[in-house]
Specification:
Elements lengths: L2 H9 L1 E6 L4 E5 L2 E6 L4 E6 L7 E8 L5 H12 L8 E5 L18 E6 L10 E6 L9 H15 L7 E2 L1 E7 L7 H14 L7 E6 L6 H9 L6 E4 L12 H24 L3 E2 L1 H47 L17 E3 L5 E5 L4 E7 L16 H19 L4 H24 L30 E4 L1 E3 L5 H59 L3
Parallel strand pairs: 2-6, 4-7, 5-8, 5-10, 10-11, 11-12
Antiparallel strand pairs: 1-2, 3-4, 7-8, 9-13, 14-18, 15-16, 15-17
Amino acid sequence: MIPELEQWVQRNSILAMEGDRFSIWQLKTRVEHEDTENKVRMLAIGQEKQLEVKSVLLLGETGAGKTLFLNAFLNRLFGVTVEDKTRLQLKDQMDREDKKTTQSQTDYTTAYIIYHQEGMSGPYNYMVIDTPGLGDTEGAEKDRINEQCLRFYLTDEKWISHINCVGLVWKGTDHRYDEMKREILSRIKQLLGFDIKRFTDVLLTFTTDEEVDAVKVVEASGIEYNQVFNFDNKPLYAVRTKDKLHKLMWGLMEESHDSFLKEINRREGVSLKITARLILTHMKLEDLQRRQRTQRQHKANISSIVEQYEGEMRDLEEEATRVDWDKIEDLDTSNEIIVLEDGRHCHYCTKCSKTCIPACETVHKATVAPVQEGEGVGEMVLGVVGKVGMIGSILGHYSLLVGLASAAVSICTDIARAIMSRIRTKKSKEKTESLHASEGINKCPKCDHFIIHHEVRDKIMAKDATWDQKVNLLKEIKYEEVMGGKSRIEANILSCNAKLASISKQEKHDDGMQKNYEREINELRLGK
């Protein structure tokens, strides 16, 4: 490092560690832009210079050595040599002891803009964008958040307007293309989503040799690249044990970075306007696809609920034909009333206060009104007329007057019998076991009271009903319960079907949006 740069470093850095062989200085940075919500920031080193900016984006898995590469790149820009007692380091990228080796040391997408200082190689400002490592032990969700932060960074011109290199930082010792490596490389490939072959380089770390097998792993993912650079940055902070070997390793590290810088300096920056549009469209498509997955799951859940309701409906239909036999005995002490329909009725004795005939279907031609006390009217009239007739018969031998009276009595008797024939219900031509076979002044075969003391009713107490009537009552009760349950289930099914219809309508709309996004992405990839 030339004296002028060394003096500048001492003025613009903090001593982080002092050693016998060398000391580590942390360069001071200032925040030019920061977005804490999206976890992106831009830190500046040195005073702003109006020079062309060469931008390098570093991508890679956790532990690939991006941070060490960044620090080695910084030391090379400032011309630090193996003989110097100064090593440079970025404060915000110092390793933390509380983090495991499989956890990324970088939580932010951070752009370091290093403004040109006299004595530095190349008449340019350099921007190196350090990103959180992929494949972090904190899971895929953390990777997704990190990707969103990077995409946010790349789609805003106030952060970056062009790029000269996408550096895929990959361990030179990674020779196996396993499932984890495939997933990480696939994420890197899809992260930007456009043709980046002409400014993508594979930066192999922890090696100075051409690791063909490691490059084949990258190629197997379908990632296309421009060049391969090999770096072993371990000598940067290593304590010398064998000076000759250390100098040799340091020299190889310098050659690698010089070769990389030479390539970056000759490249023209690529505008990110189309890239930004493409990334934004990719983000919209991914959001849409996440919503579609959620909708499909929601639709499947609702369909499952509908199937469950339909199963309950079938169970209810089967339940409607069942009778709860345990409730039959309960009817004997209940106040439940059975309504008799379809012309059926019962005969209720007002003397006994009970139902004599619980089930009758015979149609009555007349209904005998019940009386509260005394004998029947017809029986009383006939009795009186009979007695008068006997008296008239005796007196008829002695007097014409009495004879006339006897004739009058005879006429009254005929009238009375005609009236009774109207009042009394005529006997059915068919022989039945019902009470209609002995209506009027005849007695009930069940309780021995006159028929005129029985009421024809269209309702019956359940306790007085027949076995079949009780069974039918329980069936009706069960049916009403089932119909109430069916109404509720049918309403639920109707509601679910309405939701399914709404989802299907949204799916149709989203399918159209997906086709539009995919068409736009293909056009942007072709530079349209």
